[in-house]
Design a protein that fits this description.
The complex is a heterodimer of chains A (242) and B (98). Chain A is an all-alpha fold. Chain A has twelve helices and no strands. The N terminus of chain A is likely disordered. The chains are: A mainly alpha (242), B mainly alpha (98).
């Protein structure tokens, strides 16, 4: 361990602390990046286009949906709208994380929002909740490895796509739900955690069965957030201000 | 430029708008109402749950076993431990129940 890492302050040690926290995300997202690349080429994307989509959109689920619709020759505007719908949950992340990173210079904020993914938000939010400052170096350390690996592995997947053997036996299709469950569990100490989880679970399942994917994400999320808004604020541990 | 490239660029812009949009809307207000703050605090659990619940419902015994074991591990261990154990249970269980 280097001196910087022990001293505990300084941008470099903050960065590497973030990098360490990014590792589970890198591991969990690797199969999806490879899979995305493979599916993209299978659906008519070139390797360069698969690479570009990962580099510019950087949102796994939305890329999967986009590429699936592209393969079905759906109208372009509908593909873009679907990508927007799948990513709509980021509006909530953005509003949440904005409170934590408002002290950064504008350019750093612009980058910060670009790499704002599900795990990025969850891990940063937990740090803020612990009373620690969310610094740019730490945040970048958390997000940059995920981004770099995501883009490289997407291209690799596109090049070597058809070589992936039995993805089902390897459990690849279900790794993300397991990872997301871990993130949900990480917030279990928050006030109203269980009611919010139950409301979101019920609403998202009902929406999934009726309206269909990807709208179940937004509908389920809104149900959980609304519950917290409607209940008197003291249930959420938020004091009414004079 | 090809249609594919336009789709990628438009998709990227739409995505960035969702990532910056919530902040742009919220930052226009000087004081955040306690109820809004309560709602924002509920965001992580609310959103992440929707990425798990329908997937769990439409899955089978192998996936359920993985989720249950992973949830139990997360009560004690860290995120990495719960993830690796969950993945191991999933791969093992699928050998038996497909």
């Amino acid at each position: 361990m280097s001196v910087e890492a022990i001293s505990g302050n300084g941008a470099r040690s903050d960065f590497w602390q973030g990098v360490r926290l990014s590792m589970p995300v890198v591991v969990a997202s690797a199969p999806f990046a490879l899979l995305f690349g493979a599916i993209a080429v299978d659906n008519g994307f070139s390797v360069l286009e698969a690479f570009l989509m990962s580099a510019l959109v950087f949102g796994g689920a939305s890329q999967m949906v986009g590429i699936e619709l592209f393969g079905q020759h759906v109208a372009p505007w509908l593909i873009v709208l679907s990508i927007f719908a799948v990513n709509f949950r980021h509006v909530l992340y953005s509003a949440g994380i904005g409170r934590r990173i408002a002290h950064w210079p504008l350019f750093q904020q612009a980058i910060g929002y670009f790499i704002l993914t599900d795990p990025q938000f969850a891990v940063a939010e937990r740090k803020a909740e612990a009373g620690e400052t969310v610094g740019f170096a730490w945040y970048l350390g958390l997000g940059l490895p995920v981004y770099v690996f995501w883009v490289i592995e997407s291209a690799l997947g596109a090049v070597f796509g058809k070589l992936i053997p039995d993805t089902h036996a390897l459990g690849i299709d279900f790794l993300l739900p397991i990872y997301f469950l871990g993130l949900v569990m990480g917030f279990r100490k928050r006030p109203l955690w269980l009611p919010v989880v139950l409301a979101s679970a019920a609403a998202s399942i009902i929406a999934y069965k009726t309206v269909g994917s990807p709208w179940h994400v937004s509908i389920g999320a809104i149900a959980g957030v609304l519950l917290a808004v409607i209940l008197p604020p003291h249930h959420s541990g938020v004091e009414a201000r004079p | 430029m090809s249609t594919t490239l336009w789709i990628i660029i438009a998709g990227a812009i739409a995505t960035y708008l969702t990532r910056i949009g919530g902040h742009l809307v919220i930052s226009r207000f000087e004081n955040i109402h306690p109820r809004v703050e309560a709602g924002l605090n509920a965001v992580p659990a609310a959103v992440l749950t929707t990425l798990v619940a329908p997937a769990a419902l439409t899955a089978g015994p192998a996936e359920w076993a993985a989720l249950i074991v992973a949830a139990l591990v997360s009560l004690r261990g860290g995120l990495m431990a719960m993830f690796l154990v969950g993945a191991a249970v999933l791969i093992l269980a699928r050998q038996f129940v497909g």
